Structures are given as C-alpha cells and as structure tokens.
Amino acid sequence: MGIWIITCPDDLDHDKNMAERSERFAGQRERALYSEKKMGLEVFNYDCPGQLSFIEPDFIKDADCTVRTPVIRGVKDSPVYGQGKRIKPRLPGRTGSQHFEQIHLPELLPLEEYDLIVVLFSGGKDSTACYYKLLELGVPKEKIELWHHDIDGGHPTRQMDWRCTHNYVKSFADAEEVPLRLSYRVNGFFGELYRIGASEPIEWIDPETGEIMRCKPSQNYLKCEELKEKCTEDMEEQLKEYGYRMKFPAKSGDLSRRWCSAYLKIAVADSVVSNLDRLDQLAELGGKRLKFPAKGGTHQGRWCSGNLKAAVQDSVTANLDKTRENTKILIVSGERRGESAGRANYNEMEIHRTNAEKKAHRIVHQWRPVIDYSEKDVWEVLKRHNVNPHPCYRAGWNRCSCAQCIFSTPPLFAGIREIYPEEYAKLKQDEVILGFTLDNKCDLDTFVGNAKSCVYHGDEKAIHSLITGEFTVDDVYVKDQWKYPAGAFHGAAGGPC
Q1: Within its chain, how far is the Cα of 407 from the centroid?
Q2: What is the pLDDT of residue 9?
Q3: How far apart are CA 396 and CA 401, in angstroms?
Q4: How far is CA 443 from CA 99, 194, 202, 330, 448, in A?
C-alpha cells in the first residue's frame, strides 16, 4: 500500500466545498492528526507534515498572500527518515506526452535510500526552507550537500548578482556545518552576453581542498579557441558559425531566449550531476546554445530562473569518488506554484535529466518539497529556525534572484539605480553597444521611468551587506526577535513601494 504524506487542515470536514477552502483556508487549524483510507491507499499523516494531500488542491498565489494569511503547510515536519516511508506527491504529475511519461515519478524512494541529497541553494527563502524541511524530516546533515551556481563566474569587472550572495551562502553553509560546492560558467552572465563563438567552460570548486576543477570543454569550444589563436581577419564570422549571444536574456518563460537561467544555472548543474561518475573531471556540458532569457512562461527560453534557480543554484557534488556509480541521488529545489502561472504546473517530483540507470547505474530524482507552500508558509520555516533572510529581502526586494534580474519591476530597478549606480549605468551602456534592450519593448531608463525606489533603509546592516558584499557566520542567525523582512508579501512590487 502506498503512503501519502499530507498536511493537516483545520476543521477536517471532508464535506466542505472547495470554494470555501480557496478563501485562504479560513478557519483551518495549523495542526491536526488523522489517518484514513481513501482509494485503496493508506493516507498517512505524521503530526502535520508539510506535504499536501489530494484533499487540498489549492495553493495561494504570492500576489494574494499577506502577513495575515494562515500558516497551512509551513508547520514543522515530523521525522520519517529511516522509517522506510515513501513520500508521494500531492498531485500525481503530468503524463500527457512522451516526455512527461518518461520523467513521471509516482513516489520518492525512502529518504534513507538516497546516497546523496543535493539542495540547489541560491540563498533565497525557498531553497533555505527546503534545507530545513529535510532536517525536520530527519535527514542527517552528512547526507546533504548545498550546491550553489555562481551566476557571475568570476568575471573580472562585471556582476549581475548581489555582491553579498557568495558570502551569504558560504556563511550559511559554515554555520550549518554542511558542504557547499560552488560551480559556475567562466566569466558568468556578462561573458555569455558578449560571447562570439562557443560558451566558456564550466568549473567547480572542491569544498574540502579549494581546488578548482574544470569540466571537459566541448569540441566547439576547442575549435573556437583555435580560431581565436589564428587571429584571422574573418575570425568573427567564423566564430559565429559555432554560436553567439550579443543579446540580453529575453523576458520570457522560454529558456532558449531567457538564457541567463537555463545556461548559467541549469546547464551548470546538469553538467556536474551528469558526471558524478568521473573522479578527476566533469564531462562536457553537451548543452544547447541559448539566447537571452525571455520574459515568458516557458522555461525553454527563460533559463535564468526556474530550473536555473533550482538547477543552477550553485553548489555541486563533493565526494565524487563515492558517487561514481551504483548511486542514488535526490535533487531538491525550491520552486513554488504560488510564484507564477508557469510554476503552478510544475510536477512536485520527477526523474531528473541526469538519471542514468542503464549506463552508470545512477538514479537521480528531483523533488520540489515546498511547491505548494505559500509565501507565508516559507517565512514560517525561516522564522522557526531563526535564520536571517538574505539582505536583499531585508532591503525591500521580494525575490532573491539576480540583483539585476530581467524580471525586475520598475521599482526594483529603481532600487538598483540607487544602491548600484555604476552597474546600472553599465547596463545602459550595454544596451547601446549591443543595440538590444534589457526589456523586450524599451530601454532601461524608459522602463524604470519615475518609479519610486523599493529600497528600505530601516535595516542599515542589510544595506551595508548589499553594497560591500560583507556577510559573516555571525550574521546567519537572528539575535533578537525575528521579523518579516521589508520585501515580504509584496508580490512582484518590492518593499516600501
């Protein structure tokens, strides 16, 4: 018999219609216990675990979530690790095409059967909540790794991300005493933006030795390097045969156009995971050439977020010698249905792209454990563990994406103009050089217009971190009373705005 792990609605009245339930689950208790038989399956509840049941199909959009929204799914999970229990998704997942049939995963293995559980860790609230959820389910820290993909890739002069993100994720990992593996495409966002020819290779840093390891470069990259060395007059045109970027990521859901997420994050993670069977190096990327992230709903063009913030958020495998073959890996990412219409259709669990049971005897599953959490639920997890949110939330941002994310609203870009004036000016210059605007329809200044800056100045330490990049282990946990950051519960608008 299958085991369903479900939440605990208040009023436990199965006869209540769904219309009542959709009204923000008013009148529900945050915790309840019950077990019953449904559809021949045992419906198992362990002291109000965080997974949803088919009884509660609703989720709360971030735009509708407020500080007064009840905590429904963000309650503390009870341990199941080591008990042989298989977690099933609230919704069974899509199977309407050959692709979805192939990746359909009806249930996870018992958590204790995975050799490695990887949390794609951006430093944002959702991936942080995923990490703590694993701990509450009883997963030992020695089984967990945090993977962070550095969007900037060590570019010598340009940064797309927050200056403090690297120190934030490192300090968090040090405070929690879990391995953090950093991975990145060399020269990051702006190296990809201005590339002519093949993309730069992927590197990762061993958390124990600090050694920088490079993935095996693609044949296209090697050919392009040869062309560059020849310095022929027609080099540029020859290089273009292998691909070129020269455009901002498109504001689109199509990851082939919104290349910043897909290519700098997703592809990085996939390249690393696919090559856990190699001790000394990572295998070649084998990815595709993408264009600027597009502002849209599909992830084929909008590669910079979504799976990129889940599949590219930064940290890659330690102990490759232990996971070379005959291994089982669980990839955990923090996408939520309430964030967007596109993510509302995500499967909670899937067979991951890097699954290779036949060739390498490697099983790789992906789980989105907070997919049905509201924003309020997620903040409740961070509050319970007294962790300091990333400084960008505290300074007024509602999402911890790249600082200059293409999806930023005018108030958020006005905030960038205020605290990162030089980077903002360089972005405007990029538009002139490329003849391609960051927004789909107009230049950056026109897009921002007279929008009021979202920056909240009441948290001086957060502002200091964003500007200087400073963040230490001592800053990870809140020392006084935990408070919601200024950017919480603003949908896509941002802080004080």
Answers
A1: 15
A2: 33
A3: 13
A4: 38, 18, 31, 42, 9
What pLDDT is stored for residue 233 in this prediction? Answer: 56
Q: Which H or E run includes 226?
A: helix 219-230
Q: Which two tokens stand for residue 375?
A: 């924003």
Specify the DSSP class assigned to residue 211.
Answer: -
Please identify which residue in the block is written with the tokens 């992830």.
299
CB contact at 8 A, 478 and 462: no
> At residue 444, what are phi and psi to the nearest 5 degrees?
-60, -45
Identify the H or E element spanning 328: strand 327-332
Bridge partner residues of 213 (DSSP): 204
Residue 354 neighbours by CB under 8 Å, 6+ apart = 270, 273, 274, 362, 364
With a cut of 50, which residues of the chain have pLDDT below it? Answer: 1-57, 275-292, 299, 303, 305-323
Q: Is the dihedral of CA 222, 226, 229, 235 positive or negative?
A: negative
Task: Take residue 435 and report the two structure tokens written for it.
Answer: 């003849």
Contact by Cβ (8 Å): 27, 67: no
CA-based R_g, the chain, Å: 22
User: Taking the mean position of all CA atoms in its chain, how far away is CA 211?
Assistant: 25
CA 292 to chain centre: 18
Which of 123, 158, 136 lies closest to 312 in space, CA to CA?
Answer: 123
Q: What is the DSSP string of 249-267?
A: PPSSS-BTTBHHHIIIIIH
Confidence at residue 231, expressed as pLDDT on a 0 to 100 scale: 57
As a whole number of angstroms, the distance between CA 414 and CA 433 comes to 22
- Other C-beta atoms lying within 10 Å of the C-beta of residue 22: 14
Angle at 446 between CA 442 and CA 448, to 5 degrees: 115
What's at 442, amino acid-wise?
C
Give the three-state DSSP class for 239: helix
